């Protein structure tokens, strides 16, 4: 058994698709109409057959509350691995990404946290 799709709630699928593809550089894999919303997944350009990230609409009240509470408490909803966190931080800052935590060493790891503009905090990590 392996993880093939993981999801994050977003407040606007179009805005999320633009941010995750154009700003972060993920590759759109699926964009399928499902009634009012769409099944939109992205993959890493480094592993296009790898785990897909689903941009899940937060239209359910429980999903919206969950997302808002995590954000308010400063808790990232997911983590992405990067090879060089300082280079990634600089590149994303130049693209206007707002960080709530700049690269910070924690043991053998260095992490940083940014706002995805769609209701989430995202953590990046370098081992």
Automatic annotation (TrEMBL):
Residues 1-127 form the VOC domain. Signal peptide: none annotated. PROSITE patterns: VOC. It comes from the Bacteria. InterPro entries: Glyas_Bleomycin-R_OHBP_Dase, Glyas_Fos-R_dOase_dom, VOC_core. It holds the Pfam family Glyoxalase. Coiled coil: none annotated. PANTHER family: GLYOXALASE/BLEOMYCIN RESISTANCE PROTEIN/DIOXYGENASE, GLYOXALASE_BLEOMYCIN RESISTANCE PROTEIN_DIOXYGENASE. This is VOC family protein. It comes from Cytobacillus praedii.
């Amino acid at each position: 058994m392996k993880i093939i799709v993981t999801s994050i709630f977003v407040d606007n699928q179009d805005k999320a698709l633009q941010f995750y593809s154009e700003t972060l550089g993920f590759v759109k894999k699926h964009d399928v109409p499902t009634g009012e919303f769409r099944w939109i997944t992205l993959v890493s350009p480094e592993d296009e057959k790898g785990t897909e990230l689903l941009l899940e609409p937060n239209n359910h009240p429980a999903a919206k509350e969950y997302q808002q509470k995590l954000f308010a408490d400063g808790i990232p909803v997911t983590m992405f691995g990067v090879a060089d966190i300082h280079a990634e931080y600089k590149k994303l800052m130049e693209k206007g990404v707002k960080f709530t935590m700049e690269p910070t060493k924690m043991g053998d790891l260095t992490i940083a946290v940014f706002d995805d503009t769609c209701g989430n905090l995202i953590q990046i990590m370098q081992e």
